[in-house]
Amino acid sequence: MIALVIRDLKLAMRSGGGFGHALAFFFAVALLVPLAVGSDSAILVSVASGMIWVAALLASLLSLDRLFSIDFEDGSLEAIAVSPLPLEIAVCSKICAHWIATGLPLAAAAPVVGLLLHLPGEGYFWAVASLLVGTPALSALGAFGASLTAGMKRGGLLLSVLVVPMSIPTLVFGAKSIALAVAGASNTTAFLLLAATTLTAVAIAPFAAARALADSLR
Amino acid sequence: MSVWEFANPARFVRIVGRILAPTALLSASLLAVGLVWGFFFTPPDYVQGSAVKILFVHVPSALMAINAWIMMLAASLIWLVRRHRVSVLAAKSAAPVGAVMTLAAMVTGGIWGQPMWGTWWAWEPRLTSFLILFLFYLGYIALWHEVDDKERAADLTSVLCMVGSVFAFLSRYAVNFWQQGLHQGASLSLDRDTNVHNAYYVPLLLCMAGFALLFVTLVLLRTRTEIRKQHSAAIAARINADVR
Amino acid sequence: MQLRANSVSCRRGERTLFGDVGFALGGGDCLIVRGPNGSGKTTLLRTLAGISRPSTGNIFVDRDEVVFIGHSNAIKDQMTARENLEFWASVFGTADADDALKSFNLWEARNIRAICLSAGQKQRLSLSRIGISRRKIWILDEPTASLDADGSAAILSRIRSHCRNGGIAVVATHHEFEMPESKKLDLSRFQPSLRSGVRSAPESPQS
Description:
The structure holds three protein chains of three kinds.
Chain A: H1 2-14, H2 18-37, H3 41-62, H4 69-73, H5 76-81, H6 87-116, H7 123-148, H8 156-182, H9 188-217
Helix pairs in contact in A: 1-6, 2-3, 2-6, 3-6, 3-7, 3-8, 6-7, 6-9, 7-8, 7-9, 8-9
Chain B: H1 9-40, H2 55-82, H3 85-117, H4 125-146, H5 150-182, H6 192-195, H7 198-243
Chain C: E1 2-12, E2 15-26, E3 30-34, H1 41-48, E4 56-61, E5 66-69, H2 81-92, H3 97-103, H4 119-133, E6 137-141, H5 149-164, E7 168-172, E8 183-186
Parallel strand pairs in C: 3-7, 3-8, 5-6, 6-7
Antiparallel strand pairs in C: 1-2, 1-4
Helix pairs in contact in C: 2-3, 2-4, 3-4
């Protein structure tokens, strides 16, 4: 399992900017927000916590397209299906690798984006914390979506249509965790619900995705 | 007769041929009576005036929007466990009907909301949930469209329907939580139990039954069409192979 | 150890590729699968390997002994030959990457990124998974594709010695295979005869 995670990370680095692209997109969206809604600090403060999560969701979504389809096309998936490695475990490895390559950098970059969007001081800790806890769900749900579209020539847009609705609970609880902290209220409930959503996604996704991949190989 | 007898496509088509006309007729008459009664022979609400009468379309379509998804979930589960083709084709057929019901619920909600709340669309938990449900329907339908192989499409959409259900359910609670925090929703939320006047009760029930039967009729019809499409595709493949 | 197919038929979409294929292989047997393009060789092999499911019929095989090398080579271009094999070695829980590199004549090329390897080298790299897996039932789809005469002869003798040591091999190929001791299965004889709706009579593979 670890071998697959390491291989994927290696491939992400060597194919040029596996880590970089999602991060760059994260900043690009953060740049679009003030350009679209105006640079007025009051407006930015009111949207900052939400926009951090929207940007993170989009950045995570963007990097999913090739999660399984490369392995599907070059026969790696088929070879794994006839190996001692269960597909469920292979999916788990993929989720881990995707999270390390996108979720982790996004969480690390959140304070900088927060700064650009005039996020009040109380929000920084929770921006990082909520992204750390919430992005595994995005990776897991994304892996499920990617498994459904693995056999398609152009699955990118469909993938987003499938994954976005499923990511809504994570987005709501994640953005709430920051917003409530900024407003000075207790965000414990929101944060725990965010963690619960992640656990649900991580528990379901490997089995559903493995099933879908086995179907696509058939 | 066991329920599983329906699983035989040929028998299903035969049974549908027999019951389609009666269900269609019953649905039409229930809707006609319910809607005419509801629109013309009930008193206007003392707060909302006659605008309230859109509830005779709004409530049944909202009900069927959710029930259609639940039916798809059950049918997908049956396909994954027992691999009855009719079951998954019924789920496929129900999706566009459910999506239209969801759309109808949102549109009638907007028409109702305009005079009541002064806006066509409010980010109210119920309406928002329906928008999310609509997205789930679109994703399910799109996946059916994109996968060429029928068997694979059936498997993938069924898995999507099951996982999607979990997160659609979670979204409902997430949206409630989200609204609660933004502002007090009491002025915008409609508690239907207290709104439904006794005079509306019977025509509303008739409309609900009419919508439910309309849904059943459409799903039966569409499922039969799907079965016939598969038959004709199989025949076409055989003819092609013969020519070859 | 055995690999048994019991009146297996496979479909692609609406089209039946072949019907009623049956054979039984034991230790030491080699089965050569032939047939024109589109007769379902790849589908049969994928079905034997457990990736696809047969439309009807059964396959009896110990899945933990199967190794499958398909058309797609499962090679990552951005990694070196050795890194590719080390990955598969850890998946199969063996440590034979270097041995496999040597025995498939890839030792010189071990530190070259796979994208720079020739088609023949890539094919050998892909085939070296059978060495790494240490499994006994080889299912090979066109193993001699893009190999030169020497390479083909080498893989052929490898298959032969594998069978002599009690292994099982199923090989799909267009080319003449100089293996007199192998069984043969011609898929074109298992095409469904469409006009009558009755499938052609099953024939057991001849020795």
